[in-house]
Design goal:
Length: 107
């Protein structure tokens, strides 16, 4: 897993899972704490995430809200879009361009 960017926009790539969750959480929380306005997470380079990775995203979403910021997801890969729809988190998280549920196979 890698994260590059600043306190306004970050690109998350690789695997966001139980092995990388602690490092990702630290970087993302620092980005939330050090900035203002929307924090954009570009997930277009993310290969996969597990429940722990999804928990990190939700924790950052909550922390951003407490800091008066908004977490915005960009470039969410289709398989991860399906997970967000299945868990109904697409209704809670801000997703750039939204998710067209009817266009996702298997949902």
């Amino acid at each position: 897993m890698y994260i590059r960017g600043d306190h306004v926009e970050l690109v998350v790539g690789g695997r966001l899972d139980v092995r990388s969750a602690a490092d990702a959480r630290t970087v993302l929380h620092t980005a939330v704490d050090d900035g203002v306005g929307d924090l954009v997470l570009d997930l277009s380079e993310l290969d996969s995430w597990d429940a722990t990775g999804l928990g990190v995203i939700m924790g950052v979403h909550r922390r951003a809200g407490r800091c008066g910021r908004r977490l915005v997801l960009r470039g969410v890969p289709p398989q991860m879009q399906r997970l967000l729809v299945a868990t109904r988190l697409h209704r809670i998280l801000a997703i750039e361009g939204g998710i067209r549920v009817e266009s996702l196979p298997g949902v």
